[in-house]
Every structure is written in structure tokens, then in C-alpha cells.
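Q: What does the assembly look like in three dimensions?
Context provided by user:
Components: two
Sequences:
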Amino acid sequence: MCTTIIEQASIEGSGKGKDGWFSVRQAHVSYDHPFHAPLEHALNIDFVNEGQGLGARVAVELSVESAQKLVATIQAVLAQAEAGGWLAAEK
Amino acid sequence: MYQTDMYEGMLAETVMHPGANGDLINGYMARPLGAGPFPAMVLVHHMPGWDEWYREATRKFAHHSYVTLSPNLYFRAGHGTPEDVAAKVRADRGVADDQVVGDLAGAMHYLRALPYVNGKVGIFGTCSGGRHAYLAACRAPGFDALIDCWGGRIVMSQEELTPKAPVAPIEYTKDLSCPILGLFGAEDRSPTPEQVAQHEEELKKHGKNYDFHMYPNAGHGFFYYDRSAYRQEQAVDGWKKIFVFLEKYLSTPA
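A: Here is the predicted structure of the complete assembly.
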């Protein structure tokens, strides 16, 4: 690993991988060399289910600017959902 | 050097060989056909894993008459595509330095014992593999030549040290027992030109045999033809320097 910058979170949801949909249980977020994006370093997110083997993985590799936009967009959507009363109703 | 009227053949296959703690791990090996004796090389893969580029590089060294073994340093993480395995290792914050040194020493001893090897074994690595190759050449006696291509984190701050990487490789410089060729890009951020200069100063201080080259207009990974980092002119020159260096230090039987 060249930066070893990584954080992990336990999550609940589903992801669509090479074999179709599966339950995702962990998100691994790193800033390190990507496999595919044409960048020296990228913000990499692996949505995985460690109980289903190494292939149970949905990967994205983002530029820093894109990652920041994504974070802001998620926060904005969640804020709208909360303002509309949707989050309280589903907790 | 190869001539068009020469016979040429190569065997390339997966093998199992001893690694750290007596474990057996797999490796990709390529060797020129013939009785030899040939010099040998250990190839240390980079952070993206034991991937196609490293298989191709293994065959490239064999084409240049080196019996070449690229150990799978991620063997213990499980099996899948090289990317899926490397992603798992990335999530685990890499592999432990002690384990890697043991795996690379195992590869060296495996090669040296082969009847068609001339007794000389070099080591080559890129990116994290350059760092690991440096660690192995310092901590595992027996390597005869070392090529470090843009190995990052050889110089590390106290804050960067981890249980898996508890000592900065530069601290082992006094124990380096073979000549080193270093190839770096002036636009790299890991290692930065300043870190390379610090490393060079340490080698000089301990009287080591080193040959460092800093390529302008190149960053990290400028050999990788499948990445935007590729720099044709610098890569061609770098490969030329590698084979001149290896001829000098590995061609004479031990």
C-alpha cells in the first residue's frame, strides 16, 4: 500500500456486483492508488460483504473533487428527506 | 544479446515455494530453456497486486536470460481476481513488513537452489514493491543486486509507522549488502525528490554502492504502459539501465 489511508464502516444495504445483487455489509474508503481511474491517487470506495468472498465487491474510484461533490450531494439529499419527515417515519 | 538465428524458448508457470514462517505460497516463475547456468531475479509486485503487468515483467526478465520468480505476497489474503485480492489487502492496511521479507527471502533461497541458476539472485520491485525489495535486500542476507523503482515510504515519519510497518526502511540502510539501482520520477509524490535525495544521502553516508536516476517529466509508475503515468522515453531508458546493471552484477557465477 502506498498511502495506507483507509477507514472502514459497517453498513446495511445492497450492491450490484458481477454476479448480481448482494447484501453489502462493509464500506472501505481509502485514498490510495486506484486500479482503473487515470489518477495517481483516488478516493476509492469498496462496498463489500466479507462473508461472501473477495468477489462480493462493488468498487468506485473517484477524483477528490468528485468525492467531495458526492459527499455534499448525499448530505443534501438526506437533509431534504429529513426536512420532509421521511427519515423519522422510517426509523 | 539475442540474435535472430538463435534458438529461444521459455517455460512460464505457477509454482509453490517457501515463504515466511515456513509457509508455502504461490509464485509465477519464468525461465529460459536450457541448462544454464542463468542468473536469477525475484520480482516484487506493487500495491495493485500480483497482476498481469507483473506476469509480463516476469517473462520479460526471462527473455533477457534471468530465471525469474514473482511471489504472490497477498497469498494469505485469499484468492480471487488480483484486484479483489488487492482490495482486501488494502482494507487490511497492507501486508506486514516482516512477512514480506520472509516471503522474499524464501523466493531467493528457492531460486539459488535450482540446478540451472548460477548462484546469483537479484531483486526488483516497483511502488510498494520497491520498498519491499529494499527491505528484503537490507534484512535478508544473500541478494546480489537490487532495483528499486519509485519505492514510496522508504523514508517515513514517526506518524506513518504502523504495527505492520514499524520501522522506516531507510533505517536499515547500513545493512544493505548489495549494489542498488534506483529509478525515480521528478514529479512523483511518493517518493518525492526530496525523499529520494535523503535516501541517497543515507546510502552515501554508509558507503553503499548506489546508482540513482531521477527522470524529468515522469511521475509515479512511469513503466506502466497501461496507465496514464506511462512515459515512453523514460521507460525505455530505465529498462536499458536495468539490464546493463544486472549484467554487471549477476552474470558472473557465484
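Follow-up: The mean pLDDT of chain A is 94.
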